[in-house]
Amino acid sequence: MSDIGSGDEGISSQKYHGQGMDAGGNNFDSGQQPQEQELATKMLQIQSKRFYLDVKQNRRGRFIKVAEIGADGRRSQIFLAMSTAAEFRDHLSSFSDYYSSLGPPNPENVPDDGKLKSEMMLKDNRRYYLDLKENSRGRFLRVSQTITRGGPRSQIALPAQGMIEFRDALTDLLDDFGTDDGGYKGELPEGRHLRVDNKNFYFDIGQNNRGIYMKVSEVKSNFRTAITVPEKCWSRFRDIMAEYCDKMGRAQLSPPTHQGGSGSGARAGSAQPAREMDTFGGNGASRI
């Protein structure tokens, strides 16, 4: 059975080359490298691929980076919170049991999409799709990490024959460093969506080791921007919005006043302030 490619062409095969990333796979784009410490690492050689399992720690906490380097030097990687890594470890056992029960490959019984078994994991604003697949080159487990609301997608492909070895290596790391993410233990609210004219606004609740936050994203055709609001200032953020809504409501109910009689002079009252503050119209596309 030959090695299964996973994509992400053109990425350097040098370990740890490139931008620093947090546990969610987000780039630190401030121009400075984060204070990131590697606590442990394991390397697995599975067929013609190498897999690195690195336990790392930065200001946001601990996480596991899984990097796949193919025979041609292509590199792919995903990031797992410690609790997500534990859930993934458990799925590997069930996928391996299912794989063992399949028997020899039979091209006539393969589904059209090649999927033999699938699972999904959810962590904050990240989704992980686990698909045991089969193609002409063999069987493999594809693990895809996505960020909600159109974020980047990354994936690795693990040859099915190496799932147990991978699971055991992951178990060793989790035994040493634990599976507790800390922070809020309850269920976070679901995301919300608001459409205004030709814009879409998404409200997503997430959590990291610094606390709970709301990510507000504005999407318009190929344009996207976002702000992050810490949970500790939601009430103040709400009060400011409510104050503006109240002021605009009173201004729109006030009768318009005219300067200079019937001429074409500027109007006072609600019209000019409304144009300045309207962030939902066609102007001010970079503001929320």
From TrEMBL:
It comes from the Eukaryota. Residues 1-13 have a biased composition (Low complexity). GO terms for cellular component: nucleus. GO terms for molecular function: DNA-binding transcription factor activity, RNA polymerase II-specific; purine-rich negative regulatory element binding; RNA polymerase II transcription regulatory region sequence-specific DNA binding. The keyword DNA-binding applies. Pfam families: PurA. InterPro entries: PUR-bd_fam. Belongs to the PUR DNA-binding protein family. This is Transcriptional activator protein Pur-beta. The lineage of its organism: Eukaryota, Metazoa, Ecdysozoa, Arthropoda, Hexapoda.
